Amino acid sequence: MKNLKCVIILFIFSNMIFSQGVKTFFESPKNVYYISSDLHIHTVFSDGVVWPTLRVDEAVRDSIDLISLTEHIEYQSHLSDIPHKNRNRSFQIAGGYVNSKPLAVVHGTEITKPMPPGHFNAIFINDANKFFDSEQKPLEFEDAIKEANNQKAFVFWNHPNWEANRSDGIAKLDPIHNKIIKEKLLHGIEVVNFDTFSEEALKIALENNLTIMGTSDVHILIEWDFNNEKESYHRPITFIMSESRSIESIKNALFDGKTFVWFRDIIIGKNENLNQVINNNFEIVAKGYNYRDRKVEILEVELINKSVAPMYLNYIGEFTFHNDYKYIELKPKSRKIIYIKTKEIKDHINLEFELLNYIIGPKTNLKTSKYLTIKSKI
Ligand SMILES: [Zn+2]
Ligand SMILES: [Zn+2]
Q1: How far apart are the CA of 318 and the centre of ligand 2, in A?
Q2: Do domains 9-264 and 282-373 have the same CATH topology?
Q3: How far, in Å, from the CA of 363 to the mean position of ligand 1?
Q4: Which of 26, 292, 305, 326 is the least buried, fewest Cβ under 10 Å from its Cβ?
Q5: Secondary structure letter of residue 178 according to DSSP
Q6: 247, 336 in Cβ contact below 8 A?
Q7: Is the CATH number 2.60.40 carried by domain 282-373?
Q8: If you measure from the C-alpha of residue 249 to the centroid of ligand 2, how many angstroms do you get, rounded to a whole number?
């Protein structure tokens, strides 16, 4: 991600993603790597309709660094046609195929129970077969969650807002959820699943210090669900803000809540995480006092969006602009000149914006303040 010209090599069974060369979605600070991930995916080994290797190819096409094939333990709709006693098979097939491709596959599974408790993904497991008892029956919920934690998995709650589980679409905690949160057996929650975004799930994440997740939960082709004009132009992506590209570091970052989610045009994350994103992707440059070759008290300023997502800016400061209103849309990877009426020639100003598509809480947007030094006054 850091260097577009490098060739990428990635080993699935290795501990490091050597990805230097896939698309840069968002600029990150030095020594921080924004790992693009989709950690909720199905194949024919549960109720999806594609072979595991196709998921690898799709992820490479989408510049995804990290995926997990999270087959349902309890729900295997193609079992009579594709019998497989070994529930690690999907991961093994994808893993064997991923050599020399610019991404990693980590082992995962979906613990699938009626609501409550609902569905849960366990990522970074070692052995999916251990989620069955000696009679080959799936473990009861709490035993399955404990098994996931025994395998040191990162566990997150899937689609807590799913209308099949919650007819009002409102994510809320049942006693069993409170129990596993209290016992630290649950570490994250999907605030975005497939084509839904849940502000209630975001509230639950913030109040219970759960990691904010967004996933595709794809069952058919990614192209049919996401990469098209009709639905959305990209799959939901969770960016993991990791200190290195090692799997261990990525896993630690997930446990530490260092994520943000890109869903359609919106970016969702904890305040401190989105602050880092905006500080590294939104730049303002003061060009000087010059409007149509006149030396007047109108400051030329360039707004720069370095990211792949648009920025919907709402200026909340005291000035007014000469050609624009306070709402400004900065398209992905674009620049825009605005003229600010500062009333007098200044050597510095502060510009404050609210980012209407950067979400840090229910009905709450990120705010950012930029201090500009004006060197050239003419
Ligand atoms: Zn599910
Ligand atoms: Zn699923």
Answers
A1: 48
A2: no
A3: 26
A4: 292
A5: H
A6: no
A7: yes
A8: 25
